[in-house]
Design goal:
10 strands, 178 residues, eight-stranded antiparallel β-barrel, Porin
Length: 178
Amino acid sequence: MKKILLAVIVAMTAVAANAQFWVGGSFGLNFIKPDYSNSEVLTNFTLAPEVGYKINDKWDVAVALNESFIAVDGEFYNTFTFEPYARYTFAKTGIASFFVDGGIGVGASGFEGDDFFGDSRFNFYLGFRPGVNIALSQKVGMVAKLGFIGYEFVDDAYHTFGINLNNSPLTFGMYYNF
């Protein structure tokens, strides 16, 4: 029994010594005034913490929790998404690393006051997001992701398949490597 326990402790120590965990995420704040309607300014706040593990120089696995709040005309809309993904780094030059995130997102969205599990809409996506990681130091990196290539479904609202590479889904974030 002592040998098994010692072997487990040695194995866990080796994994921890070689671990390349990282934490980070992004946040965003948008104010939009539609020209086509009498609506007030739309306010959108997004918070998306992430945690990941660097498998090797090319591959990472991670999970993000995305919480988005939208307020317009006195109504509040909330979206929560659980997003596991894999990141493939395909090129490095100097302090810049170029990558593609491939993953799925599952969540729910609804208006304030709704029974979140009864009245909310089911959200799902499957696709890819290209991005760049700028190493500010050995421990800190700044990440930008642009666009989405894949399938998106929102229960009873819409579903799309395609490429979205405009600047509206541009996100910035910071990561800390352990």
